[in-house]
Amino acid sequence: MSLFDQPAFDAHEQVVFCHDQLTGLKAIIAIHDTRLGPATGGCRMWDYATEAEAINDVLRLAKGMTYKNAMANLPMGGGKAVIIGNSKRDKTPELMHAFGRHIERLGGRYVSAEDVGISPQDMAEAATQTAHIAGLEGKSGDPSPYTAYGTFLGIQAALKHQTGHESLAGKRVAVQGVGHVGYHLCRHLHQAGARLIVTDINQDALSRAAQEFSATVVESDSIYDQDVDIYAPCALGATINDNTLSRLKASIIAGAANNQLATEAHDLILKQRGILYAPDYVINAGGIINVSYENAYDASASKQQVEGIYQTLTDVFDTANNQDLPTGKVAASFAQQRLNAA
Ligand code: NAD
């Protein structure tokens, strides 16, 4: 298998395969672009079926971080890491230490944080071995509530663009994944009067959402068949694909998950079907924006910048409309312009 021929390879600057014999760590760090600053992006731990799947994931996620940081006007490049393994079974403090040592060897070119399967506590373990960890307790803390807040505002921006008003009262929203981000997003949506339909593979997370937000629980796969106004993917990526597209009834797709589209072609298909898509790396930038403030934390400046996601998305939607282009294509061209200017 050639790395450079992978469809997801996009001139990534550096891809590092990390191994530690003692702990069994197998990780991949992908640094996509450092023109705007150190490659910054979380670490995901997932039980990938194959190594190729892990490589594809880390390459796509790292590129997404480049675009996300550029769109949020942050002095950061794009990178991401994946640890191959089951986060419930294989994760130990020693494994996280080994991962931290690999980050340290990159000398600050890559800055890590948590992502799916990795908690702030896990990152605190890694941080015993390296200075290049963001989003730790006592600094800017868990980014998830900020990601959720930005996503909520992005949903409002999408509604405003499509219907002329942003009220969520009575709107039906399908939230796929009620983990760190999905839970807080449900809270905002519930407070705004939305009717929630939720799914997750974690029963405890589901029960909590059902109880606290009067959410209707559905089986994992049937989330795509729900008669809803908005579909908010907040679990893993590639949920908008050839199998799910024909089932979706929502006229807006706006959620926090990274890499929501299985391929770039789905961007155009969504436009053709009249579905307004909020590009994932624009709507889910709230967490990384908050992290960017952590060395001189200023809660109100951070909140204000997270709130800028509403306008950024509105600009993307308006340009897409005016130029008759899919929203993902417009966002990518905005991000490229910022990168080229650097
Ligand atoms: P998380 O692991 O806390 O939550 C993900 C949830 O999805 C879990 O509860 C998990 O059980 C559930 N899930 C997994 N597979 C599922 C399936 N097939 N069907 C339904 N539910 C499923 O992760 P998170 O931090 O909440 O992140 C969620 C998504 O948002 C990820 O794609 C992540 O990359 C992205 N994201 C997170 C942040 C952040 O601040 N945490 C920032 C930007 C983007």
From TrEMBL:
Pfam families: ELFV_dehydrog (PF00208), ELFV_dehydrog_N (PF02812). This is Glutamate/phenylalanine/leucine/valine/L-tryptophan dehydrogenase C-terminal domain-containing protein. Residues 141-342 form the Glutamate/phenylalanine/leucine/valine/L-tryptophan dehydrogenase C-terminal domain. Keywords: NAD, Nucleotide-binding, Oxidoreductase. Transmembrane segments: none annotated. GO terms for molecular function: nucleotide binding; oxidoreductase activity, acting on the CH-NH2 group of donors, NAD or NADP as acceptor. GO terms for biological process: amino acid metabolic process. NAD(+) binds at residues 177-182. Belongs to the Glu/Leu/Phe/Val dehydrogenases family. It comes from Echinimonas agarilytica. The keyword ATP-binding does not apply. Coiled coil: none annotated. The active site is at residue 80. The keyword Cytoplasm does not apply. It comes from the Bacteria. InterPro entries: Aminoacid_DH-like_N_sf (IPR046346), Glu/Leu/Phe/Val/Trp_DH_C (IPR006096), Glu/Leu/Phe/Val/Trp_DH_dimer (IPR006097), Glu/Phe/Leu/Val/Trp_DH_bac/arc (IPR016211), NAD(P)-bd_dom_sf (IPR036291). CDD domains: NAD_bind_Leu_Phe_Val_DH (cd01075). PANTHER family: LEUCINE DEHYDROGENASE, VALINE DEHYDROGENASE.
